Amino acid sequence: MWKWSAYRLAGRRTGINRIRLTVICSACKHLSTVRSSLSKVRNIGIIAHIDAGKTTTTERMLYYAGVSKHIGDVDTGDTITDFLEQERSRGITIQSAAISFPWRDSFTVNLIDTPGHIDFTFEVIRALKVIDACVVILDAVAGVEAQTEKVWGQSQSKPKICFINKMDRMGASFNHTVNDLIGNFMQGTTSKPVLINIPYYEKHPASNDYVFQGVIDVINEKRLTWNPEDPDEITIDDLDGISLKQCNRCKESMIETLTEFDEDLVQHFLEEAEGDYSKVSAQSLNASIRKLTVQNKIVPILCGASFKNIGVQPLLDAVVNYLPSPIEATLPELNDKDIPMKYDPKVGCLVNDNKNFCIAFAFKVITDPIRGKQVYVRIYSGRLNSGNTVYNSTTGEKFKLGKLLVPHAGTSQPVDVLTAGQIGLLTGSTIENNVSTGDTLLSHSLKKDGLKSFDKKKELTLKINPIFIPPPVFGVSIEPRTLSNKKSMENALNTLVTEDPSLSITQNDETGQTVLNGMGELHLEIAKYRLVNDLKADVEFGQLMVSYKETINSETNLETYESDDGYKFSLSVLPNAAHIPNCATYPLGINDNYLVMKNNVKYDKEWRLQVPLESIINSIMASCIVGLQRGGKLANFPLYGCSIKIRGDWSVPLDIETPQEILKITRNLVLTALDDLPTDGYALLEPIMDLDLTIPQSDVGTVLQDLAGARKAQVLSIEDECSPITPAPSSNASFENNERIYIPPDVISTLHTIKDKKKSQDATFNMKKNIKARVPLREITAYTNKLRSLSQGRGEFNIEYFDMEKVTDDRLQSILHDL
């Protein structure tokens, strides 16, 4: 498809080649006509700290893949993946966007671009649930940042490659960023970095500054430079001088690292290459890198400057060359580990040796102004056909599929079938009340209504474990402007929380107040904007407030209901008991609450009732959620960290037709159990945040005093954070890690070197301290201005949710008084 790809595949040792990248087939046509084999599919997510260049990199990928004819720009607001009005006006990604595109003719890349802001962390969590691998983008100036640490931890089990972006910026340091990666994520682990390419600089004739112009391909020993006037032109040269020396050292280091894990490469090196690093073939290196990346033993590292169009094509090649296909990725986690599951090269996940079994996972719901509700799904096994009957194993309901689509950010294209490994969209009126985020959908790959051929006790009970939803930490009250607006407000709120489950609605039965809860100030600000402008809700908002919760200190009394017509339920509510032996556990919403049901001897062997067991359990779960949402006795806040335990002798009438009566019975039992607890049986919980501070050394004392005193913080660590001065261009200095990993020294501009020398004369200017602490959210809501005052404007901080903890006695009355 591209001459670039031909070069990368062959790895020829030619002289100077100037090539122009020209798309000779339609990407859109590819999406609708070509279904890549599973081995040619890559499901990836792009993750990073905010402002590292995720969307800019994605836009270049789409341009070079032929999806777009012009390169979208975040600053001008014409990007493909950031298509919401607020994303374009703010210049940030707010929600994850999925898009499919071809690369090198035969490969299909399903890409999800995720937000970098901590308030939208749920978008990252749900993207990581369905992707097979990650591209981690780092800012070459800032290095590893707070959200980089967060997303790296979240994606720990996923194979990944790193792209060090913004190499064209003043202060960019490839050497420092790679060392930062090693120090933060690889020190003390078996995972090691492998440099696929390294930066190449050219001296500017007028200023004598070194300008980032391209990359040195370590495997193929070539220099690639991009024409700043033409994004489609790349010049490929042979290496000489210092570039060749650095490339050779990097290649030797690469081989040393790979041979630590790969016996096949050891054999190739000793026998075919005769122990000569220069004779190790590009094909052998690529095969070894791929194998070890899929095994999560190495992290390939590339560099570039996406805004200047440098390094994006090698990055795309690395995606298809090194990251796993769906049949090489980790199997999805199921609720029943006894059901046999393995990968099959034709059908994907092969469950119970049934090749006609289709499994799909719903990970995102959106509302399209024209098509209505749409659901993003990842197909794990088989084929999902338009018009087929689908069984939702999460809810126990069946429905018929409407049209299927392949996503293209703000637009999409119709298809007749979605196959294993694909990410697609469900549409049509039948999904309106039948699918939610986190549901598992099952279908027959060939028959339109073939569910009867599946084993009810095995295949039809299968569920992929749900997506973890972090609890909200901020809330804002919301009221309709008039009574006639109440229904439209409720509908708009329902749409909002359906699309974004990290938002939640709580209602106070005593005051009638409705509260919208979210992950942070920006999260709620965007939600408020959508309510008013997109969903046309005529509402008024109150002040931002901390989302407190309540919990219970001990187990309640056992409450029982038994009727003559066959209903019998006994339950109690207890704190923190999610896992009890010989019990089935079901999560109840986002407040870390669980339904715990003991094994029922009466129904375990065979279920003979007309109403599916799943419908009975879902009704019990719904009533438990309502009961816990009513809140505790301290301030009517929703209950958190509680388990509702139902005894194993429960029963329902044999002729039961609907589970409606169960809702009423179990809800009343929960409320009665909680009412019997005295007020002192409840405790108030508050969100505790992890605080990451970077401040000048001279301000450490005053900041620590403020943290320990006014902020009630627990200081966890205080460490030095020095920005090393990189060697000048003439320096022979280099950094070696573990005696094998060679990282070339940075080549930096003369102007930058002069500035650094001037700064180094003042040691306190360079020296900063990093403070990590835990602090109640209430005590840090207005911290930005305070830190600016304490550090003369030179301090920075990030916060992220840690846990809910009980409010200490000395602060309880003060908090209750302010509510």
UniProtKB/TrEMBL annotation:
Superkingdom of this protein's organism: Eukaryota
Membrane spanning stretches: none
Primary localization: mitochondrion
GO terms of molecular function: GTP binding; GTPase activity
PROSITE patterns from the UniProt entry: G_TR_1, G_TR_2
Sequence positions that bind GTP: 48-55, 113-117, 165-168
Gene giving rise to this polypeptide: YJL102W
Annotated compartments: Mitochondrion
InterPro entries: EFG2, EFG_II, EFG_III, EFG_III/V, EFG_V, EFG_V-like, EFTu-like_2, G_TR_CS
A matching Pfam family: GTP_EFTU_D2
Protein name as it appears in the record: Ribosome-releasing factor 2, mitochondrial
Keywords, comma-separated and alphabetical: GTP-binding, Mitochondrion, Nucleotide-binding, Protein biosynthesis
Keyword DNA-binding (UniProt): no
Physiological role: Mitochondrial GTPase that mediates the disassembly of ribosomes from messenger RNA at the termination of mitochondrial protein biosynthesis. Not involved in the GTP-dependent ribosomal translocation step during translation elongation.
GO biological process: mitochondrial translation; ribosome disassembly
Gene3D superfamilies noted in UniProt: 3.30.70.240, Elongation Factor G (Translational Gtpase), domain 3, P-loop containing nucleotide triphosphate hydrolases, Translation factors
GO CC annotation terms, alphabetical: mitochondrion
Keyword GTP-binding in annotation: yes
Family named by the database record: Belongs to the TRAFAC class translation factor GTPase superfamily. Classic translation factor GTPase family. EF-G/EF-2 subfamily.
